[in-house]
Amino acid sequence: MNRQHTALILALCVQVASIHAADWPQFRGPNRDGKSPETGLLKMWPEAGPRLVRTITGVGGGFSSPVIAGGRIYITGKVGDDLKIFCFDGSGRKIWERTHAPAFGEGDAPHSPYPGARSTPTLDGDMIYLLGGLGRLTAYRISNGEPVWTVDVVGELGGRVPVWGYAESVLIDGDKLIFTPGGEQTGTFAALDKQSGRVLWRSCGVTERAEYASPILIEFNGLRQVVNMTRGGLLAVSPEHGALLWRHNRVAGMGTPETTTTHGNSPVHADGYVFEATAYHTRGGGAVRLKPTATGMEVEPVWDNRKLNCEHGGYVLVDGFIYAPHGVGWICLELKTGKERWFDRGPGKGSIAYADGMLYCLGENGNLGLLEANPAAFNMVSRFQLPMGEGPCWAHPVISDGKLYLRWSDNLYAYDIKERPR
User: Fold this and answer.
1) Segment 290-345, tens digit of pLDDT
2) 388 Cβ partners below 8 Å, 6+ apart?
3) Which residues contact 57 (CB under 8 A, 6 or more apart)?
4) CA distances (Å), 341 to each of 88, 337, 348, in order?
5) Short-list 208, 344, 189, CA closest to 263
6) Strand order in the sheet with 297-305
7) How far does Cα 96 stand from its chain's mean position?
8) Is the pTM of this model over 0.90?
9) What domains, with CATH codes, occur in the chain?
């Protein structure tokens, strides 16, 4: 009986692990790096693309990605003047919907023709957390969508809405919810109790304004760090108490007016190197190296490429190489040197995800390319065109349980990309 009991427990553990491995619970995947751990995926598609499993319509306008856990799909969108959050089952049947807050609209940015959902929600346990474009942060029960607590980031925490609206996906670290209100008096970063919304700490000594990137959590030389791009460049604070660990402003001294900065991408980290890239009038990207000191950590600039132009489609780091949108196309760079390995237009600039040795590059015109993650040469093995959507196709690709999820405005498409026995 003991052996049978042990075998049953092991089998259940394997089953639970496989379920969690298939989830995509937050922006840019399980580790916030744009990479899926799934394997056994197709290395080439038919000319018309992989098989379309289902289309979910009516999710509203916007650019947020879905998050997926336990076979359920959660997504946000602008419906009328409201920002909605939806929950669907795996077949596309709607389980619940909630009105979150007024959506970011036409008049909320000086020259914004891009209203709609911004932030991708974050799943954790039995809760889902959403920061709206105008600063409403709410925790919901995933079972029925009931709100648990709400915080007005501007009114209660002194945050300042960025020009294009809050687009950040909040970070969960243990019992803490960490994000970037961008309070010029009250602190760039804040940590809340994830169960109650109670403020745990504020980075009062760090008061840079928020931009559009989502924070990541890294550990190097035993030191845990929350790192994000702000109006003032790269910042790292302690997840325990919010104290500043280090800062690096690559664009300082470039003579660029503050109003033209647009930091839309989260940094990535490997082997003590942190890379970030931005776009528009502060074009460029670069890497810094983390250096432990007697009192903590400092950073040393390693390389800087001011020709890089990565808007908001993210980048992935695979085996020491960066794959990223650049201008009208795609580029591969060495992380530690910045050396360019290749550039090609491919499916056009857009957003990126990685799984099982392949890059999923989604152009803003809805053209999806499947590329080998190979620094030696650009090789796009397949491509296809999504059904037409409204506006630019900016939502990042999502890979979960052998399916590729692509959002274009009011539609969410699910494609089967799993290899099947012949």
Assistant:
1) 999 998 999 999 999 989 999 999 999 999 999 999 999 999 999 999 999 999 99
2) 366, 408
3) 410, 411, 412
4) 42, 11, 18
5) 208
6) 268-270, 273-278, 284-292, 297-305
7) 24
8) yes
9) 24-416 (2.130.10.10)
